[in-house]
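At this stage, I needed to go through a protein sequence along with its fold in token form, as given directly below:
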Amino acid sequence: MLATMRVETHHDGLPVAFINGEVDASNASAFATQIKDTVPNSAIGLVLDLSETSYLDSSGVHLIFDIAEALRRRQQVLQLVVPADSFVGDVLGVVNVTGVAQTSATLQEALDVLARTEF
């Protein structure tokens, strides 16, 4: 299934990107560009909701690390929403994504974490 992405803006201008479907070499680069363009300098960071992401290959993993690095350079954070019992959760556990981004099981938990984040 081809992946689709939508972005919503939550309180305080916090962007939340939702990816539904499969992230692979055919779409990861385009998603990275779209996602980076949605984060204003005034935002504390970005929530990337992968709850509906069914597949993530190495290009998708690179997308996450790339976004995290771009945000870090701007002193912003990346918060991921990844259900623990999912294929994507298993993949991200293997690559130790916690070194670059925090993960939450639900969107509300991710929003709560970022609301408490201070720089």
